[in-house]
């Protein structure tokens, strides 16, 4: 069995106000091309089909066209689940009809226990859920955590295992590895606790969605696919794409296929003068989504408007010095607390502007502080 594992499409998402539907359609076409080149038997989408529970009309239309192209035109089976960004109620509409074209979309916990069987593989499609849904399904008020729920869910799924077939779990949650890093210790994502990977190791492959980094979990057969696109500036160094997974007699081989974005997400740290220089920006795709960190200390009038004349898709602008002060030159909190209001304001003004107060500014500041102290005294 050969599958393409993808997740977290977030159709309809915006990047700091910029519409990404064109980029999402561009990425989807590459998914179809990869699926055909690799001759996969099915495509797995591990949740978060949409970015919002009530997606915009344009997002719904885009996703519908994608499924028509993939499932009806190309005749590729699709196995999908709802994620925490999706509305399971809205997604389940039409589900029984979809199955006639091998588009299996599971949106409720009850559906997870009847595997979809294709060739030599059983697929258990577990949509995003919360512990209260497991309590209601199992009639067990003792279930308080996601881990406790998953213990019961996996136990029930295993009763359906066919030893002559491979087993694949498709799910949407945060999975913690047995070798816990600092980020995995007591970490919650989406309000839920982590699920130990040990609970899922009886499956031949676990196709996960929820975390956007394909390397969020280091495990031989439990994998995140990551997103098709970079959906925040924090993801700018991440490689995006899909996983091609082949399962044969309980043995798994997998490879990652990159998706080339229509516009890249990138960060630049430079001075304003350099950024505005043709010698600099001629070597950059200025249409990219760019986060800019200015090295300049002085205030630059209309800085965003000037920069956008060259870089129209700026998604973030900050002062590099401000970040360095925050990260590297942070004053001791006790020292700051010991400063009187006037001294504290002088520090703030210097950090913000890079300059010291003039005599006139100093006089205005002192008068303002005295006036505020009088007001506080009269109110007390």
Provide the residue-averaged pLDDT: 88
CA radius of gyration is 26 Å
The structural domain count equals 3
Find the CATH topology of the largest domain. Answer: Purple Acid Phosphatase, chain A, domain 2
CATH superfamily of the largest domain, by name, is: Metallo-dependent phosphatases
Q: Any guess at the CATH architecture of the largest domain?
A: 4-Layer Sandwich
Q: Helix share of residues?
A: 25-40%
DSSP helical segment count: 13
CATH class of the largest domain: Alpha Beta
Q: Which sequence of strands runs across the widest sheet?
A: 6-5-4-1-14-15
Distance between the termini: 77 Å
How many β-strand runs?
A: 18
- Major sheet: 6 strands, mixed
Strand content: 15-25%
Q: Which of globular, elongated, flat, extended, rod-shaped describes the shape? A: elongated
Unreliable stretches (pLDDT < 50, length at least 5) are 178-192, 324-329
Q: List the quaternary state of the chains.
A: single chain
Structural descriptors:
Mre11_N; nuclease; 18 strands; six-stranded mixed β-sheet; Purple Acid Phosphatase, chain A, domain 2; hydrolase; DNA replication; single chain; 22% strand; 380 residues; elongated; 3 domains; endonuclease
What does this structure look like?
The structure is a single chain. The protein is an alpha/beta fold and 380 residues long. It has three domains: 2-258, Metallo-dependent phosphatases (Purple Acid Phosphatase, chain A, domain 2, 4-Layer Sandwich), CATH 3.60.21; 265-325, no CATH class; 335-379, no CATH class. Helices cover 33% and strands 22% of the residues. It has 13 helices and 18 strands. It has helices at 21-38, 57-73, 88-91, 95-98, 131-138, 146-158, 272-275, 278-281, 303-308, 320-327, 333-338, 341-353, 359-379, and strands at residues 2-6, 14-15, 18-19, 42-46, 78-81, 103-106, 116-118, 121-125, 166-172, 175-176, 195-196, 205-209, 222-224, 241-248, 251-258, 265-270, 289-294, 314-319. It has a six-stranded mixed β-sheet, covered by helices on one side. Strands 7-8-9-12-13 form a five-stranded mixed β-sheet, with no helix packed on it. It has a three-stranded parallel β-sheet with strand order 16-17-18. Helix 1 (21-38) packs parallel to helix 2 (57-73) and helix 5 crosses helix 6 (146-158). The protein is elongated, with a radius of gyration of 26 Å.
């Amino acid at each position: 069995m050969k599958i393409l594992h993808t997740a977290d499409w977030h159709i309809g998402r915006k990047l700091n106000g910029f519409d990404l539907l064109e980029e999402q359609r561009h990425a989807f076409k590459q998914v179809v091309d990869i699926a055909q080149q690799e001759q996969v038997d099915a495509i797995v989408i591990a949740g978060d089909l949409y970015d919002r529970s009530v997606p915009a009309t344009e997002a719904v239309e885009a996703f519908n066209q994608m499924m028509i192209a993939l499932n009806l035109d190309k005749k590729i089976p699709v196995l999908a689940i709802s994620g925490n960004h999706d509305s399971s109620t809205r997604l389940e509409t039409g589900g029984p009809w979809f199955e006639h074209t091998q588009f299996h979309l599971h949106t409720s916990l009850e559906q997870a226990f009847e595997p979809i069987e294709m060739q030599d593989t059983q697929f258990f499609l577990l949509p995003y859920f919360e512990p209260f849904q497991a309590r209601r399904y199992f009639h067990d008020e003792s279930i308080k955590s996601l881990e406790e729920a998953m213990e019961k869910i996996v136990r029930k799924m295993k009763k359906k295992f066919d030893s002559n077939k491979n087993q694949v779990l498709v799910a949407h949650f945060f999975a913690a590895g047995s070798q816990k890093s600092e980020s995995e210790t007591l970490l919650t994502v989406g309000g839920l606790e982590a699920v130990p990977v040990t609970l899922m190791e009886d499956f031949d492959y676990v196709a996960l969605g929820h975390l956007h980094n394909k390397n969020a979990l280091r495990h031989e057969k439990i994998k995140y696919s990551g997103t098709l696109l970079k959906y925040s500036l924090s993801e700018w160094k991440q490689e995006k794409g899909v996983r091609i997974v082949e399962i044969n007699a309980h043995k798994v081989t997998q490879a990652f296929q990159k998706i080339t974005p229509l516009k890249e997400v990138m960060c630049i740290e430079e001075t304003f003068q350099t950024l505005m220089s043709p010698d600099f920006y001629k070597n950059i795709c200025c249409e990219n989504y760019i986060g800019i960190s200015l090295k300049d200390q002085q205030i630059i009038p209309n800085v965003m408007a000037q920069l956008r004349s060259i870089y129209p898709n700026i998604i973030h602008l900050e002062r590099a010095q401000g970040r360095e002060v925050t990260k590297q030159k942070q004053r001791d909190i006790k020292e700051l607390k010991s400063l009187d209001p006037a001294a504290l304001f002088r520090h703030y003004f210097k950090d913000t502007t890079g300059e010291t107060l003039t005599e006139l500014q100093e006089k205005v500041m002192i008068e303002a502080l005295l006036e505020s102290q009088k007001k506080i005294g009269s109110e007390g």
